[in-house]
Amino acid sequence: MSFSVLLNNDNHTDLLYMSKQRKPRGVTASPEGIMRLEQARVSERDDEGKSLSYEGLAQKAQISKKTVERFFKQKRVDWHSASAIIQALGLKPEDVLFSEESLLLESIEQIQAKDTGDSERAGELIKGLETALSELKKSEEASLEAMEWLKANRKALSQEAAEAALRKHYDQNPNNVDTDYSGDIEVFSQEIREYLKLIYYCLDVGDWELMDRAIKESKIPVNRDLQLYVDALDFIKTQKVSLSFAPEEAKELTLCLDYLIQIIPIKL
Question: Distance (Å, rounded) from C-alpha 208 to C-alpha 219?
C-alpha cells in the first residue's frame, strides 16, 4: 500500500507504522564517497594555502555550512546541495553518491559497457533508466521549488490560514456569532507558522521522523482546540498549495500537510 493511499485509510495504526517505513527524500554519500570527499577537501586549498574547511567549502558551493557538515556525516541532503558540494571538489556524482540516482547511472553504464548481443533491447533498457533518472531529478526540483515558496510565503499563509480556521470555528457555534476574534488571529498565526517551519525542515533534510519527534517532545504549539490546527493546515493545502502548484510539483509538501492533518488528532 502506498503512503499517499494510506493517508486516506482510517486505520491509524497502519498510518503511523508506514510513516516510519517511508524512505526519506534526498541523497547520501557512500562510505567510499566520504573518503573521496575528505581527500578532495584536504587537497583543496583556500586563499591562505590551508586545507579547505567546511565553511570554505560551503562558500564555494554556495550552500550552508550545516548542509556540508550533514553530507560529510553521511546524512541525507537534497540533490542540488550534494551536486554543488561534489562539483566544488572536482568529483563526479557516481564517485560519491549511494542513491537511486547513482544506481541508475551505474546501471546505464553497465548496459552500455556490456555486449548483450541485443542492441535494440539494450537501447530500450538505457532509455527506460534515463527516463527514470530524469523523473527523479524533476521530482527533486519540484520539491525544492515548493520549499522556496513555503519559505517565502510562510507568514502570509499562516495569517490567512489562522483567520479562515477561526472564522469557521466561530461560525459553527451560534453562540459566537457576534464574538470578535480578530485579536486572536495574530497569536494563532504564529502557532501555525511553527507548523510550517517544521514542514520546511522535514522537506529540507528529507526526514519525516522530525514531525513525530516534534510532536512527541512538544516542540510545536498545542494551545487550543486541535480541530483549529487541522482546519488551518487543510486551508493551506486546499486553498493555497493546490492553486499554486501542479499536483506533482507539490507532492512532498502535500504529503507533509496530509500527514500532520491525520496525526494531530491522534498523537496530541
Answer: 15
Q: In this structure, is the dihedral angle defined by the CA atoms of residues 236, 169, 201 and 153, taken in order, positive or negative? A: positive
Q: What is the DSSP string of 1-32?
A: --HHHHTT-S-HHHHHHHHHHSPPSSB-B-HH
CB atoms within 10 A of CB 258: 18
Which residues are paired to 51 by β-bridges?
45
Structural domains for the chain: 27-98 (1.10.260.40), 141-267 (1.10.490.20)
Given a cut of 60, whether residue 19 has pLDDT beyond it is no
Contacts of residue 29, defined as CB under 8 A and 6 or more positions apart, other chains included, come to 37, 71, 72, 74, 82, 96, 97, 98
The per-residue pLDDT for range 75-101, each reduced to its tens digit, is 888 878 888 999 999 998 878 886 555
Compare 48 and 15 and report the one with higher pLDDT: 48
Average pLDDT for residues 213-241, to the nearest whole number? 91
Judge whether 18 and 3 are in contact, CB under 8 Å: yes
